[in-house]
C-alpha cells in the first residue's frame, strides 16, 4: 500500500478526472439545486503564474465542497483571449495573433489541468473565437438600439512617426512611443462610447444590496468611482452681443455643490465641448484655433479664452419688486470663459467661478485676470481677520480660503444673508433661487461614459457600417459575426483594420450603396463584461443560471471589470425583465497577491538569483561570490527580480495536494501570500501522516470485510470515554472545516483544523476507541480534506472502499452525525446487608478520585443518609464489598 508515490497518485487521479469530466447538469434534468462558482478567467499570456494557481485553487475547493454538499455545481473556465500582447507579438515577430493565442491557450490549459481542478471544460470559451464575439457584437447592437452606444470625439495617444494610435500601455512613462520612440501626441478622434452614466444612479444605489457579500473596500472603491454628489443647477442670465450691434439674452446652466458661495462668483467658465462653444466657434476663428490647440497644452492647464461678446448676470443679485414680481436682471458684469479645466460631460459642463473659495477657480483667475481682486464671501468661525472688502491677492499670496461648510459663515459681502451659517445660507439661497425658477436640485456622478473604441486589430470588430447617405448603420443580425480579416500587422499607418481595404469596403445594410465598415475594435473589457452570462446559459431557456453565486478573483479588478459587468448585466435585466441579471455576482471573494522570495544586495541594489545565494535555513542568506549578506524580502513576482515561481514545476516537485494545501495554508485568502517553498514540508508531513492513519483504518476495514464484524475483543476497557472524546473532536473538526469552506476567506484555518484532527487520530488506536469509530474518524478526515487535497484523499479512500466508491461522490459530513455518548457522571448505590437488599441511593454525583477512594466514598455516602446510618450503627460491620458496574 505504501508503495505508490506522490507523482503516481497525481498521475492516476488526474487521468481519472480527465476520463470522468464533471459537467454541469441542466436544471431540467438534475434534481439538485444549482450553484454557480466562477473564478475570473485568465488572459492567455502563455504561462500560468502563481496568482492563477492561487485563485483557481480557491475556486476549485469551493466547487468540490459544494458538490459534496449536494449541489449541481457549474464551475466553468475560459479565456480572455483578445488584447494587446497577441497583437504586439504579431507586429514584432510576424506571427498570426490567432495562432499565438491558441498555442498559449493549449499550454496554459495543460498547466491548469495539472493542479487537479474540476473545471467543466465542456463550456470552455474564448473571447477571440467568432462564436463568442458574434455575441459581443449583438450586445453592442442592442446597446446601440437603446441609445447606449454612441460616437463622440475624444482624445487618443497618437504616434506621429508610425502614424498610429497607441494604447496607454504602449506609451512609455516618459511619454514616448514603445516602438518608434517618438514623443506621443494627443489627438481628437471620433470614438465609440457606452453610456454608463445613464445607469450611474442604479450602479451606485444597488451597491447597498451587496454590503456584507462583497468586500467593503470593493464597494467603497465602486462608490468613489461612480462618485455621487448632490448639488444644484443654477441658471445665469446671459447677454450676448450679436454681430449687427444688437444683443439678445440667453441663460447658462452651471452645476455647483457650493451654492453658499454664490456671492463670490467672479466669472463663468464653459468646457470646450459645451454646445455654446461649438456654436460660437463657427463664427469666431480665434476661438476655434484655441479649441484646436488644447490637445497640445499641458495637463491641468489653466488657459482660458474670454468670450468677449458674452456677459453674465448673477441671479442672486436679482431683485424682487414691491408687488412681488421679479425685476429684470440688472448689471451684466460677469466675464464668461472657455476653459479646459472645466470637464465636458460632467454636471452641465459649465461652472460658476469662485476664486476665493475654490482652488481651481483661483488658479484660473490668477492666470487670466491677475490684476483683479478676489472676492471673499465666507469666514470661518473664530477667524480673527474677517475679510470684508474685496482684497487683492497677488500671485505670491497663494493662500486661499477653502473652509468646510458646517463651521463657516457668510460675511458682509452677502447682503441679507450675511452672518448666516453656510449650511443654513445654502438652504435659503436655494429656496430663493428655486422660487425664482433659477435653480433646481441636481445629482451628479463623477463617472464618465465608457470609451470602448480601440484602434487595434486583435479585438471584436464594431458591427457598424458608415454610409455616405444613411450615416452609421448597424450590421444586420443575420450578417453577424463581422469576422476579423486576415492581415499582416505592421504597427504603422493608422488603424490596422483601415488597411484591410477589401474588408472595409461593403454595402450599406439600409440603402445598398457602397459603404465602409467601422474600423475600430472593442475594448476587451466589453468581452469580460458578459462572459459569465454566456457560461451561465442553459440549453433550456427556462433556466438562466445567473446570477453567479460566488465570484473569485484579483483585487486589480475591484473597479472597472466589476463595474462594467454590473452595467451590462443590469442593462440585460432592463431589456429582458429578468431580475436574475440585476446584480450579476451574489458574492465576491477577492484574493491577495502572491509575492516571491527576493534576494537583493543591500549596497548595490542588485537582485540575485536563488542559485547565486547560500541560504541558512530560517536565517540569513549570503551572496555566493561576494559573501555579502543579502536582504531577503517578499515582493511582487517579476522577471527582473528573479523571484518568480513556476506553478507547474512546483506541482511536479511536491504534488498537487501539498501545493494546494500550502497555497491555502500560508495566508488567509485576502492577504498577500509570501511564497516560501521551504515551508511546504509541513504539508508533506501532514499528508504522510494521513496516509499512515488511512493504512491503519484499511486494516480494520479489511478485517471487517473478511470476518463480517469488527474485532470487539480487543477493545480497551475505557473505550466508551475515548470514543466519546473522539466523537467530540470529529464534531468540532466538521464544524470548523465547514465554516471555513462557507466563509472561504479563512480556508487557511480549515487546514489547521485538519491538522489538529490528524494529530488527534494519530494519538489514538483502534483498540482504544473501537475499530468502528476509528474507521469513521479516518473516513471523516478524508472527506473533510478532499476539496483541498483531492488526489491523496481519493487514493486513501479507494484503498479502504475499492475503486467503485469515489470519495468526491460522498456526502459532506454533518455535525449531527457524530453523537457524543453521555458518559455517566453519577451513580446509583444499591445497598445489600448480609445478602439482603436494603436501600438505593439514586444519582450520587461521582466523588472519588481514583480506584483506592471508592470504598471510602461509598461508605460515607451510605452513612450520610438516616437509614444508612441506622443500618450500619445497628450492627458491627465486618466486611464491605463494593460491586462495581461494568462501566465504572
Ligand atoms: C462653485 C464652487 C465653490 C465649487 C467652491 C466648489 C467649491 P464635486 O464635489 O467633486 O462634485 N464643477 C462642476 N462641474 C464641473 C465640471 N464640468 N468640470 C470641472 N469642475 C466642475 O465637485 C463639484 C464642484 O466641481 C462644483 O462646485 C463646481 O465648482 C465644480 F468654493 O461650484 B463648485
Ligand atoms: Zn445607406
TrEMBL record:
One Pfam family of this chain? tRNA-synt_1_2
In which domain of life is the source organism classified?
Eukaryota
Say yes or no: keyword Aminoacyl-tRNA synthetase present. Answer: yes
Q: Does the keyword Metal-binding apply?
A: no
**GO MF, any single term:** ATP binding
A Gene Ontology biological process in which this protein takes part is: mitochondrial translation
* Database matches in NCBIfam families: leuS_bact
Q: Which family does it belong to?
A: Belongs to the class-I aminoacyl-tRNA synthetase family.
Record protein name field:
leucine--tRNA ligase
Q: Which organism is it from?
A: Arthrobotrys oligospora (strain ATCC 24927 / CBS 115.81 / DSM 1491) (Nematode-trapping fungus)
